[in-house]
Specification:
binds S-adenosylmethionine; 17 strands; 3 domains; elongated; seven-stranded mixed beta sheet; four-stranded antiparallel beta sheet; alpha/beta; about 350 residues
């Protein structure tokens, strides 16, 4: 219960100004009203004499009342990724170098606020490192949940559903625009290869909107591959062919088959340009994702590889995908293999 002053509506503004001046409004609760009266929450430290004076002057009275608590946020919500009903946030800079207890306190407060403001979120985790290793796995620590701590979720994107264990396989909602962009470039009937397919977002979105296309989706991480297979079924697709293992092994078996190759492994896709050249039919289009410091540096990598492997190429478009770190950007270079 909170202490409140009950005042007629026509006198409310005058009372509010006086309460503010005397610093008597309780900031932890919200005012409320009914047809005739306004209730202002009052600090319990108010003395009896002041109470009586205000009550007499404004024909008001003090009551104990259940009042809504104000949501107090000490800092704004940080940037976060929402994957299905899981949120992974980054601790704000001002807490990064603080002592562990202070950091954990801030993390809990952020997680509580996220759960309060997003009723569809089940689990909130804090990023504890960058995406790392050959499988590109996120590092995080679960801070709060609504009781179920599972890191498996179902994420919806562009009309498709993706089951993912965010602790065991890569998925980034930040690439959603790229998936839509590439999908809009595909002509139905094309044979598309997605080495580095993860749990299948590029492959499945393309296959669903291009039923006459065949999409080959390759993945090295056995956990991500398991979800790729599940997601093909979840989206009821018969035109995605999953291939487990190293993308390097595609080169020989599927040589000269691809109308399009998508290479979403920005950390080391340059090491696989020879695989793309091998998969490519004449006029095949390649989407090359790459971490670098400039768009022209990414284009140079593509041009040098074409020279090395004696292929003719035309760069169609190069664009910034996102800032990855203060010094590194992710770039995509779309190019056509002309021979
Ligand atoms: C950055 S993730 C992209 C996943 C997915 N395409 C997406 O957009 O969410 C790169 C994926 O490539 C896989 N990978 C890494 N090296 C590979 C290789 N040599 N052959 C096949 N897949 C590989 C990783 O396990 C990871 O799932």
């Amino acid at each position: 219960m909170a202490l409140a002053i009950r005042v007629k509506k026509e006198k409310a503004e005058e009372v509010r100004k006086l309460l503010l001046k005397l610093n008597l409004i309780d900031p932890t609760h919200l005012p409320s009203s009914n047809d005739d009266f306004i209730f202002f929450p009052i600090k319990k430290s108010i003395d009896e004499k002041t109470k009586q004076d205000i009550a007499k002057k404004f024909d008001a009275n003090f009551v104990e009342k259940r009042m809504k608590r104000k949501l107090i946020q000490k800092f704004s919500l940080p940037h976060f990724d929402m994957i299905g009903d899981i949120v992974i946030f980054e601790i704000p800079k001002e807490f990064k170098d603080k002592e562990e207890t202070e950091k954990i306190k801030a993390a809990r407060e952020i997680a509580e606020n996220i759960l309060k403001q997003h009723k569809n979120v089940r689990l909130v985790a804090m990023k504890t490192g960058g995406v790392s290793g050959p499988y590109r796995i996120r590092k995080f620590e679960v801070i709060l949940s609504r009781g179920d701590n599972s890191t498996i979720t179902i994420h919806k994107e562009h009309g498709c559903r993706f089951k993912i264990d965010v602790a065991k396989a890569y998925y980034s909602p930040r690439l959603s625009y790229e998936r839509r962009r590439i999908n809009s470039l595909v002509n139905d009937g094309e044979t598309v290869f997605v080495p580095f397919a993860g749990v299948g977002p590029f492959a499945i979105i393309i296959a669903k909107s291009h039923p006459k296309s065949t999409v080959y989706a390759n993945e090295l991480n056995p956990d991500a591959y398991k979800y790729l297979e599940e997601n093909i079924k979840l989206n009821k697709l018969s035109n995605v062919i999953p291939i487990p293992g190293d993308a390097r092994d595609l080169a020989e078996k599927y040589s000269n088959k691809a109308d399009r190759v998508i290479m979403p492994l920005p950390m080391s896709s340059d090491q696989f340009l020879d695989v793309a050249f091998s998969l490519a039919k004449k006029n095949c289009i390649v989407h090359f994702y790459y971490f670098t410091n400039s768009i022209s540096a990414a284009e140079d990598v593509v041009k040098e590889a074409a020279k090395r492997f004696n292929r003719k190429i035309e760069i169609l478009e190069s664009r910034l995908v996102r800032d990855y770190s203060p010094e590194i950007i992710e770039v995509v270079v779309d190019f056509k293999i002309l021979d």
